[in-house]
Write a structure and sequence with these properties.
Elements lengths: L2 H18 L5 E3 L2 E3 L2 H12 L2 H18 L6 H19 L2 H27 L10 H23 L2 H7 L5
Antiparallel strand pairs: 1-2
């Protein structure tokens, strides 16, 4: 893909993630899961690569924090997940590994990295694994949505060559 095309798609993902991040949610029990960030992480990782995926995750987290609709915990979770998803996709060329990278990167690693931020920077008294379960729920839902979207996109005649690695 050409750099200008990647930049344009990246900007669109950042806008969608910022605007729709709090609008679309899935009710699970007494909680709400906001999967858009994770959908965009996987789509960015597969379609644009790890550098753009991390850039999108950072941009969305920053914009949502500036607008007051996000939290500081969006930075480590989303950026680690996007990076791992992008790297695993590059190494394997399989969408399922991008999905697993997002789930492990955001849900497990991002959840654990959020603990020192909560404990030592924000002064919250939480357990080390406090963020893992909610991060895992959100990232699993979003990643599975992205997986379905990518599988549908892969059947498109125009994008089929891209997924076979024949992009120009």
């Amino acid at each position: 893909m050409k750099p200008l095309y990647k930049l344009t798609v990246s900007a669109m993902f950042a806008a969608i993630g910022t605007l729709a991040g709090n609008l679309l949610y899935i009710p699970v029990g007494a909680t709400k899961i906001f999967p858009i960030q994770h959908v965009i992480n996987v789509l960015s990782a597969v379609l644009l690569g790890p550098v753009y995926a991390v850039g999108n995750a950072f941009a969305i987290s920053l914009l949502r924090n500036l607008l007051g609709t996000g939290s500081i915990f969006a930075f480590p979770g989303s950026m680690i997940g996007a990076l791992l998803a992008g790297l695993l996709y590059i190494w394997t060329k399989k969408v399922i590994f991008a999905v697993l990278g997002e789930i492990i990167g955001t849900g497990v690693i991002g959840g654990l990295v959020s603990f020192p931020i909560a404990r030592f920077i924000l002064g919250q008294n939480v357990a080390a694994t406090f963020f893992v379960v909610p991060f895992l729920l959100a990232t699993t839902c979003g990643s599975l949505i992205a997986y379905v979207l990518l599988k549908v996109l892969a059947t498109s005649p125009r994008l089929e060559r891209y997924f076979r690695g024949e992009q120009k």
